[in-house]
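Weekly structure sync - notes
Attendees: PM, LS, DV (DV joined late)
Agenda: review two folding runs queued last week.

Item 1: First target. Sequence and structure tokens pasted below for the record.
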Amino acid sequence: HGTYWIFQTFNCCMLLLRLLITVRRNKRLAIVTDTMIVGASDLLHFFLVFSLVQGGYAVCGLILFGDQLKVFSNLDEALHSVAYLSVIGDWSKLIAVAHLDGKMHSASMELSIV
């Protein structure tokens, strides 16, 4: 089952690459691919820093709330929870379990992401 999803992800990436190569042949649409090429280095550095910040908050959540909340019980769950919390922002369970620590964790995460 896992191999199937890895193959499908690789397939989608290859289709996207073929689409971008095809789009590059058109003079007007080549602006998009040229912009992506110019900004690739900046995007790579942004995603590196973003991943480190998200990972740091996941580890902090694992240490602070791992024994109290199932969503922070292991690193995989903590990474998914931090990604979900950064997008959706439903902090109610976290604050209900650990009032002060939950508020500090959520407030610092919101400030660092914004």
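Item 2: Second target, run right after the first with the same settings.
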Amino acid sequence: MTEGDKLRLKQQGLEFMDITEHPTLGALNAQRPQRFVNPDRSISAQNSDAVRALLAGEITTDHMRADIAKLSSFWTRSYRSNWGLLSSNWVFDHVSSIIAANPSDKTRTTVTKFPHKFVQNSVVLRLDATDDTTPDEEKELVIVGAHQDSLNYRLPFFRAPGSDDDGSGTVTVFQILRSLVEQEFVPPKGIAVEFHWYAAEEGGLLGSQDVAAFYEAAGTKVKGMLQMDMTAFVKSGTEPKIAFFQDQVDKNLTTFATKLVEAYSPLPWNMTTCGPRCGSDHMSWTKAGYPAIFATEGFFEGKLAIPFSRLAYGGTDASLSSSQTSLNTPSTPSRTMSRRTTRGTTAAHTTSTTCWSS
């Protein structure tokens, strides 16, 4: 299949996985014992009220509006363009600056550029508890992701701000990260939390397949993956909602996520689908044999992304609510998550910048 063939599918509103590089994704995990257990914890009303109050006071849309304006200022974020490389470099620098602005000696942070055969990099940020002696290979990961690229389906190197698809998901994940480090979140023992910003979702989930295949080959344990894609669009005359896809997702993990919405979010939730048009990076993790879910905006049926859309048709309030819900990361009760009153000037995250070899 050529790039032109893929563009024609996109023009028809069809989503797909380009499995050229990873035709056997999931084969290794299929041979391994099942070890990924979905969460089964109750959510206390007292805890819900406390978290709601904390989130309401800590999170605003100011950062999100500035971030999405910057992302959409790139001519395009196409994974095959120099603009796509520049935008991915900005994502890397931006998340690094969020960490640098919130120093803590309680967490160890690694910010990574994950290279691909195309010019755009994926970006991976990992949080570990500094005092957790669990070997990295034994830890379970909780992953929150979005795709950073955009694409003009008709003219692939022309203007494609991609404010909603998926600038909105990208800044939602920025805000989740920012809120956690501002509140001095520390992952519980035996668990690491990762934030992923994937390259080349629009090319057939190319970036996330590379990452998922790397993790599968390494035997990495992934407790759950949440994909945030198109989280800001609210159709005129409709009620803002957080929607969960029913296609190619882990049903039990989705059910747990709906309980989180009920407990922590001011918005209601609904289930949605788009049949053969459904597609985002959660599919790479599902295919690799890991529990994955997909959160988006309202009712998705009948709505196609407009690659050149700007903020006129979207709103960051919906993304804000997605951030509030996602802060209660499935199966990761924080050992430390409190309102920050002072910020140390000497303590700092241990931050390293690395690249995986292709």
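Discussion on item 2: Residues 302-316, 329-334, 336-358 have pLDDT under 50 and may be disordered.
Action: LS to circulate a short write-up before next sync.
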